[in-house]
């Protein structure tokens, strides 16, 4: 293989536009999420290239070397872009610095995310209500993914019995919201994290919610969960419900006035509800559900895949059996969905 088969992003930028054909070897989905200006997915009649350079690129500049080498053997003036699309991004004037591009590289590579999706994550604001067994993994993965603004609200303090599942906490006696904030900033110092070390109530909800466009319900009280549901529907803020006890967890995403909410399904909170204190919990179960809540948030923000809307995902982690309970949509009997008007 010739040593001069590689061409750098800087050299590419200096080439006259009519001197070469730039060919993207990645998938069509990746191309749609972002590509080098002027690049094509395929060149229909490559024989008409004449003396023009054929410059191939992939994500990291590996497969494109082999492709360029093959076309050289066929007599073409072929090159491979050094470092591929990932390296080219670092030369561009984007909203991300070089360190951020490297940090998020593996998810930018995903065709469902790309640079466009990463920008959406950076612009997003997610409020996590509850900094316990669900809120810790949810917050940690949202921070790692690059969600630009994360709020955490919890009035409780870390106790020794929390540490089997609330993996973001290291110090007993500190407020959970403040503790989780410290961990998230340690994971990613490029994001903005705000802690609210007090209860989430009907009285302070308006002031807090107005700064966020998605909510993760990571609380452990049925009454609080229904309050969060009602407020999110009333204020038109999408949210993800999560619950876990023992080895079993549940997840559901609600898009206000478009999909079923918690009251569409259960109508009222249960009169008796088991807690982690009374029934017990294995920490990994909370981790699984909290991670699913983070994933639902990421999918909503980036418009990727199918969310758990109009359905309740139930996961029995002791037997590793999952089922999805489907609902037809907003219930005509729901007192929240049928009376709510946007209050933002």
Automatic annotation (TrEMBL):
PROSITE patterns in the cross-refs: RHODANESE_3
Highest taxon of source: Bacteria
Signal peptide (residue range): none
Gene3D superfamilies registered for this protein in UniProt: NAD(P)-binding Rossmann-like Domain (3.40.50.720), Rhodanese-like domain (3.40.250.10)
Keyword Manganese: no
InterPro entries: Rhodanese-like_dom, Rhodanese-like_dom_sf, ThiF/MoeB/HesA, ThiF_NAD_FAD-bd, Ubiquitin-activating_enz
Molecular function as annotated in GO: ATP binding; nucleotidyltransferase activity; thiosulfate-cyanide sulfurtransferase activity; ubiquitin-like modifier activating enzyme activity
Protein's name in the database: ThiF family protein
């Amino acid at each position: 293989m010739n040593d001069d088969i590689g061409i750098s992003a800087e050299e590419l930028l200096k080439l006259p536009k009519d001197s070469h054909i730039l060919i993207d070897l990645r998938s069509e989905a990746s191309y749609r999420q972002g590509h080098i200006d002027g690049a094509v997915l395929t060149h229909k009649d490559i024989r008409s290239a004449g003396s023009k350079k054929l410059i191939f690129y992939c994500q990291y500049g590996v497969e494109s070397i082999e492709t360029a080498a093959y076309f050289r053997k066929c007599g073409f003036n072929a090159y491979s872009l050094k470092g591929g699309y990932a390296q080219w991004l670092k030369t561009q004037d984007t909203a991300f610095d070089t360190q951020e591009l490297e940090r998020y590289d593996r998810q930018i590579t995903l065709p469902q995310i790309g640079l466009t999706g990463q920008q959406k994550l950076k612009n997003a604001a997610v409020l996590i209500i509850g900094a316990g067994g669900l809120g810790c993994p949810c917050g940690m993965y949202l921070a790692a993914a690059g969600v630009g603004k994360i709020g955490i609200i919890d009035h409780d303090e870390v106790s020794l019995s929390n540490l089997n599942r609330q993996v973001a906490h290291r110090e007993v006696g500190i407020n959970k919201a403040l503790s989780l904030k410290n961990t998230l900033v340690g994971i990613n110092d490029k994001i903005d994290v705000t802690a609210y070390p007090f209860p989430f109530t009907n009285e302070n909800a308006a002031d807090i919610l107005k700064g966020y466009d998605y909510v993760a319900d990571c609380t452990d009280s049925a009454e609080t969960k229904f309050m969060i549901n009602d407020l999110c529907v009333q204020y038109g803020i999408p949210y993800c419900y999560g619950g876990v006890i023992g080895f079993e967890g549940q997840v559901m995403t609600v898009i206000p006035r478009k999909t079923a909410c918690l009251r569409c399904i259960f109508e009222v909170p249960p009169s008796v509800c088991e807690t982690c204190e009374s029934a017990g919990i294995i920490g990994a179960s909370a981790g699984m559900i909290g991670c699913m809540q983070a994933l639902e948030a990421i999918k909503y923000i980036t418009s990727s895949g199918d969310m758990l809307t109009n359905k309740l995902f139930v996961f029995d982690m002791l037997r590793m059996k999952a089922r999805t309970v489907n609902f037809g949509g907003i219930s005509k009997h729901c007192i929240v969905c049928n009376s709510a008007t946007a209050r933002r």
